[in-house]
Amino acid sequence: MQIHWHRRDLRAVDNAGLAAAATAGTDDEVVPVFVFDDDVLTHAAPPRVAFMLDALASLRAWYRDRESDLVVVRGDPAEVLPDLADRYDATAVTWGEDYSGLANERDARVRLALDEVDVDRRVVTDSVLHEPGSITTNAGEPYSVFTYYGRKWQDRPKDDPYEPPEGSTLADVSGDPLPSLEALGFDEPVAEIPTADPAAARERLMAFCDGPIYEYEDLRDVPATENTSRLSPHLKFGTLGIREVYAATEAAKDGATEEQVESVETYQSELAWREFYLQVLATNPETVAQNFKEYERPIDWRNDPQEFEAWKAGETGYPFVDAGMRQLRQEAFVHNRLRMVVASFLTKDLLIDWRRGYEWFHARLVDHDTASDVGGWQWAASTGTDAQPYFRVFNPTTQGERYDPDAEYITEYVPELRGVEPATIHQWPGLSATQRRNVAPEYPDPIVDHGKRREAAIAAFEAARGDS
Ligand SMILES: Cc1cc2nc3c(=O)[nH]c(=O)nc-3n(C[C@H](O)[C@H](O)[C@H](O)COP(=O)(O)OP(=O)(O)OC[C@H]3O[C@@H](n4cnc5c(N)ncnc54)[C@H](O)[C@@H]3O)c2cc1C
């Protein structure tokens, strides 16, 4: 027997590890396994555990349709996997590589434990098209600027998607029922969680590649158009394979105009950003908690608790910022433009440490991915690699006017402002208190003056640089 250990690859199609296990030996059948690891669960949050349980249910159904099953166990993988290898008389365990610091430590322990009982392991590249460390400068150094990395990433040949295993290669096993959210120690998420079913994810990918991808370049920053793929939770949990996603985008280029091809390539470069941030974190694991960019002196964060609460609640009196924060509460997801705007508002206008914003996203996002989340926060806070320069502070009002001119996105998430003229919504922070009371008495006054806070933020960063 061969064991395939599912981790961030909760699917059967285009699964490099599963394909490797299924083709390893002529008579060897595959036992699919998932381990609920308490160390990993400590870092989880309700939206993601709910999504993961849904994904596991779909995966189990896929195996059961083929007279096999997903064996589900709770425990420490370094203990569980040697036991399972013994129970099923398995000669090898396969898995797809994961690159976070936590995963590295766990996998090192699992390797040792399997060595001790003489079970082989096969570790394959699955969740990325190009592994961290495979795209470097000519001197072999990791890139810290995206443009050069992205160019090489685009030019490199990519693997084709893997076929799912034949039913005849799967072992006739049966697993215990999946635990509930409650049994795993989590409450129901407050937000609406998207379905994790790989078939639904595939439909979403195909629909996106059938039209919206051609307008991605023009519309990806306009949140009301919903013109992005919303594939991030699927890429996080591997309910869709990255090769399948990439192949669908390549197929979208067939017969497309030059402009449409450019739009597809803009989308592909976002997939490259995902892998860029992954290699930044893999090479600099300490940046999960430390600034990537070193300043002469510590940044003098204000960290005002009331302002932080207002930001979390979407009650800052800056309509575009509040809409983003309320989308997070409602959907466990935020549009990318808004992630940038709310992160800039927190770290610059409020001068609150990016790590606090990261923690809130970590607790709330269904697609939280350590590398992209840290990368996004450090970009906004001007502490990251290839980050926003400290003196370029987003103006939350002009951002709203530019990317949500008719205030459609804002009014979707901020009901107090429904029925108010878009121009008045955008001017909200500049209206007099009486005007605000007349127009939308339920919506809060601005908690800060952007102009003044912008200057204060620049001064704080200049002090940290040692300029003053
Ligand atoms: C402060 C901040 C925090 C973020 N936290 C996360 C996170 O926890 N998890 C996460 O997946 N993304 C994160 N992002 C990146 C980005 O906002 C999301 O990937 C994107 O909004 C997901 O929506 P989508 O799938 O519709 O994206 P699309 O625009 O359709 O992009 C397709 C895919 O490309 C990848 N991608 C797109 N933009 C980025 C980016 N800037 N960085 C890295 N990968 C990208 C994602 O995998 C995404 O699913 C963060 C960005 C910021 C500014």
Summarize the structure.
The chain has helices spanning 16-22, 38-41, 46-64, 77-87, 101-116, 146-155, 198-209, 212-219, 232-237, 242-251, 258-283, 305-313, 319-331, 336-349, 354-364, 370-380, 396-403, 408-413, 422-426, 433-439, 450-465; strands at residues 2-6, 30-36, 71-74, 92-96, 120-124.
Number of strands: 5
Percentage of residues in DSSP E strands: 5-15%
Please, what is the CATH homologous superfamily of the largest domain?
DNA Cyclobutane Dipyrimidine Photolyase, subunit A, domain 3
Q: How are strands sequenced across the largest beta sheet? A: 3-2-1-4-5
Mean pLDDT over all positions: 96
Could you say which small molecules are bound to this protein? Answer: flavin-adenine dinucleotide
Low-pLDDT sequence parts = none
- The overall number of domains is 3
The radius of gyration over CA amounts to 24 Å
CATH class descriptor of the largest domain: Mainly Alpha
Instruction: Give me the secondary-structure category.
Output: mainly alpha
The CATH architecture category of the largest domain equals Orthogonal Bundle
Helix share, percent: 40-55%
**Global shape:** globular
Q: What quaternary form is this?
A: single chain
Q: Order of SSEs, N→C?
A: EHEHHEHEHEHHHHHHHHHHHHHHHH
